Automatic annotation (TrEMBL), chain A:
UniProt keyword list: Iron, Iron-sulfur, Metal-binding
Identification of the protein by name: Ferredoxin
GO molecular function: iron-sulfur cluster binding; metal ion binding
Record-annotated 4Fe-4S ferredoxin-type domain positions: 11-40, 41-70
Lineage of the organism: Bacteria, Bacillati, Bacillota, Tissierellia, Tissierellales
Organism: Thermohalobacter berrensis
Signal peptide limits: none
Automatic annotation (TrEMBL), chain B:
Coiled coil: none
TM region positions: none
Species of provenance: Thermohalobacter berrensis
SUPFAM superfamilies assigned: Thiamin diphosphate-binding fold (THDP-binding) (SSF52518)
GO MF terms held by the record: oxidoreductase activity, acting on the aldehyde or oxo group of donors, iron-sulfur protein as acceptor; thiamine pyrophosphate binding
Official protein name in the record: 2-oxoacid:ferredoxin oxidoreductase subunit beta
Length: 73, 273
């Protein structure tokens, strides 16, 4: 359990803005209001509030936002 | 770079996909890929077949053996693939118009034979690619470009249709219930026989606009608020279930599988020689 928690904490929210179509699903269903849509592209507005639940990654139809490791940038 | 799942199972050079902003087909495609990842099946042992339509663009983006066939005939091609190579896990991705209208006959006969194919329907209630014509699953009274004053046809309940035709596994989920899609697809692939999973999609461009369903988030919230799990639905009356979407594993049974029965016939003749 401890190791899985550690892996989760090391993950980082990454936005691939060239794939984003600005539909707004991620921002609407983010439980902590981390995201917002500005000029039809998703923006991270409050990264400190992110609990890394992965809802945005699961719900993004365009695979433009995800929790990745340090190497994924 | 993109996430591991996308990197491993999708053809990244073909992305971003052509689906409209807010179209939930991308969500469903990722959920299917996640199910395959969870089951840990070798990529070469999977064949994904599709017909024509918005949904049927999906195999173009998926990095497996894939076949993009003619309109409505995905199940016919898939039957041929499964008969020729029964070891392959054959998955059909189809739309509501593709499988219920043009390919309706293939659907009921594939279900009747109980051939080991997992069929996933991306049901967006309309023909999206050709310009918003009403489909066999457009709810009664709703509008399309070919039903500007409302559709008078009664819509199909696809899960009941294939169950009656002889399918051994049926399930329904929505684009909001993403983890449920993954779970149902996993069970569908594991089931030895014809498995049918209906996933309700949102089409903000045609269905949403024609029927004034609001924006993408409103349509997603509609799926969230109007769905009811099959176990909870059992306790409610038909009146209470009116206009509700029943989600979950709807039907599961065991019947002899088509390719195995066919193999038995071949073996019986080989013994005689």
């Amino acid at each position: 359990m401890a190791t899985s928690l550690k892996i989760k904490n090391e993950k980082k929210l990454i936005v691939k803005s060239e794939w984003c179509k600005g539909c707004g699903i991620c921002a609407a269903f983010c439980p902590k209001n981390v995201l917002s849509i500005e000029n039809e592209i998703v923006k991270i507005v409050d990264i400190d509030a992110c609990i890394k639940c992965g809802q945005c990654e699961m719900r993004c139809p365009d695979y433009a936002i995800y929790l990745g490791g340090k190497d994924d940038e | 770079m993109s996430s591991r799942l996308i990197n491993e199972y999708l053809r990244e050079d073909k992305l971003p996909h052509i689906w409209c902003p807010g179209c939930s087909h991308g969500i469903t495609m990722r959920a299917i890929v996640k199910a395959i990842d969870n089951l840990n099946i070798e990529k070469n042992n999977i064949c994904i077949v599709s017909g024509i339509g918005c949904s049927s663009r999906a195999p173009g983006y998926m990095d497996f053996n894939t076949l993009h066939t003619t309109h409505g005939r995905a199940l016919a091609f898939a039957t041929g693939i499964k008969m020729a190579n029964p070891k392959l896990k054959v998955i059909v991705i189809t739309g509501d118009g593709d499988c219920a209208a043009i390919g309706g006959n293939h659907l009921i006969h594939a279900a009747r034979r109980n051939i080991d194919i997992t069929t996933i329907v991306f049901n967006n209630n309309i023909y999206g690619m050709t310009g918003g014509q009403y489909s066999p699953t457009t709810p009664q009274g709703e509008r399309g470009t070919t039903a500007p004053f409302g559709n008078i046809d009664k819509n199909f309940n696809l899960c009941n249709l294939v169950k009656a035709a002889g399918a051994t596994y049926t399930g329904r989920s929505t684009a909001y219930h993403v983890n449920m899609i993954t779970k149902l697809v996993e069970e569908g692939i594991k089931n030895k026989g014809f498995s049918f999973i209906e996933t309700l999609s949102i089409c903000p461009t045609y269905y949403g606009r024609k029927n004034k369903k609001g924006n993408v988030v409103d349509m997603m919230n509609y799926l969230k608020n109007n769905s009811i799990n099959v176990k909870a639905a059992e306790k409610l009356s038909d009146e209470q279930l009116k206009d509700k979407i029943i989600v979950g594993e709807l039907y599961k049974t065991q019947e002899p599988e088509y390719t195995e029965e066919y193999k038995k016939i071949i073996e019986s003749f080989q013994k005689e020689r």
